[in-house]
Structure formats: structure tokens, C-alpha cells
Amino acid sequence: MAAPTLEQSVSSEEPPSAGNGERLRQLALRFTPSATAILLGILLMTLTGSLLIVATASGLSLPARFAVSSGAYGLLISGAFGNLSYLATTLDRLGPLVLAAFSVAIAYRAGLFNIGAAGQIAVGGMITVILGIKFAAAPGVILGPLALLGGLLGGAIWGGIVGLLKAWRGAHEVVTTIMLNFVAFWLSTYLVDCTRNCIPGVGSINDPTKSDLTLQVGPGARLPSLAHLINLVFPGSVAHEGDYQVTIGLFIALVGVVVFWFLMQRTTLGYEIRAVGQSQKAARYAGINVKRNIVITMVIAGAFAGIAGAILVMGPDFQQTVNDQAFKTLPTGFDAISVALLGFNGPIGIIFSGLLFAALNAGSITMESASTLITNFQVRHEFIQFAFQALVLFLIAGQIIPQFRIAVVRFLARLMTGFRSSLQQFPLLLWLLAAVDVVAFVALLGFVLLSMFSLTPIISGAVSIGIGLRTLDTTTPAALLLTFYCMGIVVILLLLGFRYSSKVGKKDVAPPLLVEAMPTTAVLAAAVAQPPPLTEPEVSDHDASDSTV
Amino acid sequence: MFLSELGKLLVSANLWQATLQFAALLLLPALGGVISERSGVVNIAMEGMMLTGAFFGVMVALATNSVVIGVLAAILTGGAMAFVHAFFSIQFKAEQIVSGIAINLAALGLTSFLNYALTNGQGVSTLNASLRIPSLDIPGLKDIPFIGPVFLQQNVTFYLAVAALVATQYVLFHTNIGLRIRSVGEHPQAADTAGIDVRRVRYLSVITSGLLSGLAGAFLSLGINGIFNTNMTAGLGFIALAAMIFGKWNPLGAAGACLIFGLGEALQNRLQLLPLTGVGIVDTPLHSPSLVAMVPYLLTIFALVGLVGRATAPAADGIPYEPGGE
Predict the structure, then answer these.
(1) Does the beta carbon of A199 lie under 8 angstroms from any beta carbon of chain B?
(2) In whole angstroms, what is the distance from residue A146 CA to residue A159 CA?
(3) A111: left (phi over 0), alpha (psi -120 to 50) or beta
(4) Angle of helix A347-374 versus helix A249-266 axis, rounded to 10
(5) What is the pLDDT of residues A39-64, one digit of tens each?
(6) In chain B, which residues have their Cβ closer than 8 Å to the Cβ of A547?
(7) Cα within 13 Å of Cα(A309), Cβ side
(8) Kind and range of the H or E element at A432?
(9) Under a CB-based contact definition with an 8 Å cutoff, are residues A107 and A294 in contact?
(10) Which of A155, A517, B40, B254 has its CB surrounded by the most CB atoms within 10 Å?
(11) Which sign does the torsion angle of CA A529, A531, A535, A536 carry?
(12) The dihedral of CA A549, B98, B79, A497: what is its sign?
């Protein structure tokens, strides 16, 4: 390691010198990169998405193409939050997404990469379906908890297998989870396809009218919708209950948030999990049973995903769809990875990033159907979902954001100190960092909002007077938009350029983004405080002893 | 009755032709995976690279009316996706698994959107025979019983895959280049000291894996199916990943695994058609295609935990190289 870099001075916990101010600074440090990452992800998506739409919307004039591309995002937002019914759909997607994200997050905290949430959801959901059909006549007080518990156990077993294989033989969890995802998928297919007596005591669970659907679960295993509950308390206050999809699954997810926080922050188990995630060797040295912790972590991770699967089944549809499309493109299991990473594997972050993805998920479907009403060009929902996910993952994977922030701050600080004194002594460094974040935040937000809404009134006007966008050939708004897009591209190029130049000539740029969410080195130091001081350097979990992918 | 039918099935040329075809389809991305991971870059993005290749192969073949250009486009776009993966994992030292997932999702979103947008929502229709990769057709030889249909009537890509297998095995274990790739994957610091450009070797290895996966995509869309459908790879890239691990990161081992998985796939489609008379039980598990489809994944897990011989990855697999580190 060379001389301490700016990142280290920024991310290391300095002794509190300014009381409340220090706490505020720590908070700002912790959460602004996440917010900036989300916004930059949105910006990137808006840009690439728009350009793709502009390039491919055949049959429209160029200004109309720009109008469609920007109007699409207006529709995306209004489709997610536009009215209470849309909002209810968004919130309905939120619950399972957040729970599944916890499954990824808890594993990540222990240094394990759980990309098997999809499989754990499938198994948990299938057990919930089987229980819900077998005991269809049971009252809700018994069947509801039973079905939830079944889902939890199913997921826990599926996750536990991964943990056992890892602890027992060092089988890399990434490979085993991928494989178990497919096993879960084919197992579900087998159970659904099976029209004979495949499950002893239950019989066929196949819906005779559609081959890839299970039967609906009994009424006792159906989560009541919030609208229904409100009507029970205040009769007649919600007119059309069926319009509001959100169920009490949302509250189950909120309980999950508290459980996750308590487990990670307030229990010995959570402490041990975090210690194992920091360094297996150090944890072992401190007397923590690493193998046991790996198994327990994966069991808990699977349990979170299993409950998500149960809620998905007990939610608005009351049945499980098992086909290629539903599994491989089923957003929950794979979205969960982005949600967890984007939320910094912490409870609060995950709620926010989960909300973002739930809104995208719900809004993109409205966008797809609404866009065909406006023009003959349909903006496909898959595109938004996957393009956004991929971009966010790349942002996280490339750790572009923190590098960029630091490059800017370093430059500004140098500017302010006249390129003379050492940056370590510069007193305003942290505040400068926060200021840069705020400026970036506001600028990006402004950019996104402006480009989204600049043409929406025109589109809605066109719809209301019944003309398609083909006839819309006004050049002024298009020119305005074009300017915005060009500006955006310049910003992106600058970002990448800064990022790159900050790397050149510096060999030890510590990428702190994912690390920031992890417990700090202080935890580790405490963990090894009692035995003689640790002489070995910290090792990553890609130990030579582990068999990796 | 059942057993005799099963026996007939097992010696039928049709079964083995399908087996070899599926095995070759898996072999190309599996070889790519072997090369990439031997150089120390985890690659779970073969699925996305295949899908991209499959899509652009069809689109370019349609646009240029030439199957050769279509295949080239498939190979190059697969390579381009691999370059993105390499750029993020080598240049930015990104988490390679996250980058791989991102590539897969990006490919799925991009191809399904473009497939919709470029065809006005119609999707492409089945390609004419002239736009498909032809099968080998040698008069006389193709009529040899069994051998003819199984080995000499395959799609041209099959022979390319076999050539790729031989080439990969030879290059990896009998040439300087192969030694460099393996040393970079096992101990990059030592390789660097010996004057090997670690990053360059890794870049080229990852891109090679993309080229091979892109070719496999063309094999699927332009060769076997003659059409592009949304998400048409449907997990093939992951079976290839499984084959690579099951084959213990060896080209020949991967080929063996591909043969086993290919046989499983071919059997799976044919077993359900067998009559069940003469068997005591009505429901044999063999009769359920879903349970047979599970086998490759289960075998891979067994291989990982050492029940079928221990599979161990290259030592530096997945670890970004830090010059002067450790």
C-alpha cells in the first residue's frame, strides 16, 4: 500500500470531533453514494432507452420519435404512482421484492453471493400452494400462518442445501445456486405438469384449464387486501376493492425489515455473520464457527426468499405460474440482486431501492399498454426492466460512482488549496464531498424530470384531441429535448473520462462502494481484540482453500 | 415391450444425431467458458452472449441476405458482449458475477426489445432454407447406415465445434499461448513477473469465449431452429456453464459432459413417446421430461461436492489482478 489515499481518509471512521456534525457527515457519506447511483442509473437508462426508441420507432418522424421516447418515461412514472390503484400495484410488488432482497443481502453480509433467490422463491411458493390446496377447507387463522410457514421452510431448506454444500465441501455458492434454480424450476414444472397423483395425499395441483398454472389456494391461505380491511373497519369507504391489489403481504415485509435489522445489528448471530463476511480467517481466529455460520446464514437467506414466494402465491393471484417466461424472467428473484446491491445490503436502502424497482415493474406494464394508445409504437416493458437492471448492476459492478465523486472532490480540493498542501489536512473535505453529492443529485433530478415531462403535456394533448403522434411535427420541443440528450451524453462521457483518468497512474485505488455497506474494520478489530493481535493481512473470501467458480 | 422399445431407441441413429447436435451446441460456449475461466475471469454470461449472437445473426442474415455474414455478425456481437464483460471485470475490477448477471439481463432486454421494435411487433418469421446454416451433404457417404446420419449429416457448425474442441485442447495444453493463459489464471503475479501481460491475456481469453458463444447462438437460431424467438437460449448458457464445471475446466472433460447432457436432452424428448405397456408401474419418473431435465444440474452439484470426482477451479479465478498486490 502506498500513501493513504483520499478514499481511505474518507471512508475510515475518524474519531468524532464535532459531535452531531460528525454523525451527520457519516450519514451523508453512507447514503449519498447510493442515491447518486440510483439517479445516475435512471439517467443512463433514460438516455440509452430514449436513443434506442428514437432509433427503432419506425414509421414516425424524428421529432415524434423524441416525443414518444420522453413521453414513455412520463407514462412510466404515472403508471407507477399516477393514481391510488397504480400505487397499490406498486406497493404490492414491493413486499416480495424487499424480502427477496434481504435474502441476497444477508448472504452478502456473510461474504456469500446468493443468486438463488429465484429458486428459493419457487420452492417456497410451491410448498405454499400444496399446503393451500391440501388444507383448502381450513380456516384462515390456521391455514394462513401454516402456508407462510411452509413457504419459509421450503426456502430455508433450499438455501440450507447451498450452505451445507459450501460448508461441507467448499462448493462455490454461485454455481450451486444457479444449478438449484434450475432444479427448482424443473421440480415445479414436474409438479404442475403432473396430472396424476404425484404428491401423496394431495393429488394433482394442476389447473385443468391452463397447463402452466396451479390450482388456486383455499380461501384461508389468501392474504386479505388492504382495501378489504379498510372496508371492514370503515364500511363502504373503498368503492372498488378489486382495483387495489396490495395485500397485507406488505406488512409482513415490513416485519421482515425489522427482523432483518434486529438480527444483523442487535444479535450475536448477526455480529458473527458480519465478522465472517469481513474475513473468514479473522473470524475463525476469534473463535467463530465459520462453517456453522455459513449454513445458518444460507438457511435464513432461504427463509426470507421462501416467505417472498409464499406472499407471491397468497397475493392477488392465489396461484403459481410455472413456465419458462414466469421463472426466467420472473422479476422478483433476479431483481432482488439489484435491489440488495443498490440498497447497500441494509434495511433502509433496500426499502428505497425496492420501491424503485417495484415502481419500474408496475409502471412499465402500464407504459407498455398506454404507449400503444398514443402511437402505433409500443414501448415494451421488458426493455425498461432489463435495461435498467443491467445498467444499475454495471454501475455497481464497475464502482463508477464513488470513484467519480472522489475524482471530482479531489480536483475541487486541489483547486481550493491552490494545488499546494496535502489533501489530508484539508478541513472541508467531507463537506466538499457532501456538496458535490448534493449538486449531482439536484442536477440529475432536474435533468430527468425535465426530459420526462417536457413533452408529456403535448402527448396527452394529442391523445385528448384524438390525433396520433404521426401528425405531431413541431420542432421546438424536439430541439429542446435533443439538447438535453446531448448534454446528458457529454455528462456520461465526462463521468467515464474522470473515472478513467483517476485510475491511470494510481495503482491502489480502493473501490469502497460495496465495502461501505459492510461493517467497518472496527467490528473486525473488536472481534479479534481478545486474542493476540492479528498479524496476518485480511484475506478475501476467495481463499485458495475455497473452490471458486 | 417397454424395454425392447427402449433398446430400439438407444440404437437408433435419430437419437444419436440429436445427442451430438445438442452436445455441439453446448460445447461451443462451454469451451469459451473454459478459456475464460482458465485465464482467471469468471464467466457466467455465456447465456447472454449466445442470445445476442442468435439475435444479430438472424437480423444481419435477413438484412444482407447472406448466411455467412449473419454468422460472422453473430460471432462478432457475441465477442462484443464479452468485451463489455472483460472491460468491467478487468478494467474496473468489477465483481465478475454481478457483471455476468448484468450481461445476461442486458442481452435479454436488448434482444427482446429490438426483436419487437425492428419487426414492428411481428417477430421474425421462419427463415428460408437459403438463409440457414446448411447441413453437410456428401452423396454416397451420407447413406452409410448409422454413421452417415449420425456423423456425416450434421450441421456445418457441428464440425466447427469439433474443430474448436481440438484447437482449444491443443492450444491450452501444448502451446506457449495456452501456458500463458493457464499461468495467468493460476498465479497472475508470477506470470507478470515472467513478463506476461496479464490484462491482455485475460481480455483476449474473455473475448474468445464471447466469439465461441456467439457462434453457438448462430448455430441455434440460423442452424437448428431457423428463427429467433425472445429468450430462445432459455438457460442453455447455464447448462454450458454446468458442463464446463462438470468437465473440471478441461476442454475434453467439458466435451464429455456435453455428450452426457446432450444424450439426456435427446432421451428426454423421446422417452415420453415410448409405450408403457409391459411395465408394472404406470408412472415411471423416466416418463417425465421435467425430471430428466433436472439431471445436468444435479450432476454438476455432485461434481462440485466431489461425488463424481472433485472439480476445482483455477486458483486465481474471479480475482481481479492487482499489479504488485499481495
Answers:
(1) no
(2) 20
(3) left
(4) 150
(5) 666 666 666 667 777 777 666 666 66
(6) 304, 310-313
(7) 41
(8) helix A429-453
(9) no
(10) A155
(11) negative
(12) negative
Q: How is residue A189 written as a grid cell?
A: 414444472
Between chain A and chain B, the number of residue pairs with CB atoms below 8 A apart is 177
Q: Name the burial class of residue A267, with classes exposed (0-12), middle (13-18) and buried (19+) by CB atoms within 10 angstroms of its CB.
A: exposed
Question: Within 13 Å of residue A503, how many CA atoms lie on the same side as its CB?
Answer: 19
A419: cell is: 494545488
- Given phi > 0 = left and psi -120 to 50 = alpha, else beta, which region is A344? left
DSSP SS3 for A54: helix
First to last CA, chain A: 28
Q: Which of A256-260, A421-425, B282-286 has the lowest mean pLDDT?
A: B282-286
A455-474, pLDDT tens digit by residue?
455 445 444 333 333 333 33
Cα–Cα nearest to A79, from A331, A379, A441, A386: A379
Q: Residue B324: closest CA among chain A residues belongs to which residue? A: A507
Among the listed residues A546, A47, A380, the one whose alpha carbon sits nearest the alpha carbon of residue B109: A380
Contact criterion met (CB < 8 Å) for A397 and B293: no
How many residues does the structure list for chain B?
326
Residue with cell 457532501: A434
Crossing angle, helix A84-109 and helix A117-134, to 10 degrees? 120
**Cα–Cα distance, A115 to A126 (Å, whole number):** 19
pLDDT of res. A104: 92
CB atoms within 10 A of CB A290: 18
Chain B residues with CB-CB distance to A398 below 8 A: 88, 92, 94, 99
Task: Output the DSSP codes for B38-84.
Answer: HTT-----HHHHHHHHHHHHHHHHHHHT-HHHHHHHHHHHHHHHHHH
Write down the mean pLDDT value for chain B. 83
Instruction: List, in order, residues 6 or more apart from A483 with CB less than 8 Å away.
Output: none
Does the ipTM surpass 0.85?
no
Cell of A208: 385443468
B-chain residues near A542 (CB < 8 A) = 318-319
Name residue, grid cell 452417415: B148
DSSP-assigned states of every residue in A362-426: HHHHHHHHHHHHHSS----HHHHHHHHHHHHHHHHHHTHHHHHHHHHHHHHHHHHTTTTS-GGG-
pTM: 0.76
pLDDT tens-place string over residues A293-322: 999 999 999 999 999 999 988 877 777 777
> In chain A, what's the furthest Cα-to-Cα distance?
80
| Helices (H) then strands (E): counts for chain B | 14, 0
Residue B18 has pLDDT above 50, yes or no: yes
pLDDT at A9: 40
